[in-house]
Amino acid sequence: MNKRMSLIFGIVAMAVSAAAIAAGFRLLIIPEGLLSGGLSGVAIIVGYVTDWNIGILYFVLNVPVLMWGLTILGRRFILLSVLNVVFTTLFMQIIPLGDMTDERLISSVFGGVLVGAGTAIALRYGGSSGGFDIIASIISRKRDLPVGILIFILNTAVVLALGLYKRDWDAAFYSMLSIFVTGKVIDAVHTPHRKVTAFIVTNRTAELAGRLLEIPRGVTILRTKGAYTSEEKDMLMTVTTRYELAELRKLIRDVDPRAFVNVVQTIDVIGEFRKKPLH
Q1: Which of 19, 138, 169, 210 is the 20 to 30 Å CA partner of 74?
Q2: Cα torsion for 87, 93, 94, 95, to the nearest 10°?
């Protein structure tokens, strides 16, 4: 797949992702007075308090985060993330406010499924849904911090704010359920582990290692020998995060389309994981 077709495919994926996210918000989550996670949750609760347009709030809150990411993350990743946020904002103006069910349990679960599926599609095809995904990408790239815990704390604060404002703790608890379901769907569709190890067998060792070091990413080079062909090749071993997995796939395809890649789960990393400090 050439670069132009890859970009077109990425744009289509962002549109599908945005449609799923906006449908989850407009058809299920917002009609029942619930919240989603991340900056979308902040936009929703501000919309509840002020009666402002939640889609526009979602866009405005994402602008500074996307600008921050532009200085640190790859242009393609940010471009696709910007498109995702724009598409989501547009779909939230088009999709009517739903009246599909009066059951908050159903709304929280299936709203979480739609938002999670949309977010996972964005991550899978090299973008994101903005908000905390961008923040997580930046933090995970520069610091080996428990990003999942940080996002959980931020989401909890937003949900607590909803409970305190509306005095409706049922809404707060159902919102937590929706956020939990969203996370589980992302794990099922994208990858359940925040760190993964890639083993890359290639004939273009120097070029590929150089590109990986620019991310920055530590690389170990091992000399290997095929059992069937007895051909010697280099194998690069590198640890990355799920937020950067799509970028890693694209990088490898660009440098060596014939490379053999095995991605495995990584439970923990002991030692220096990052190469450069966060500025």
Answers
A1: 19
A2: 100
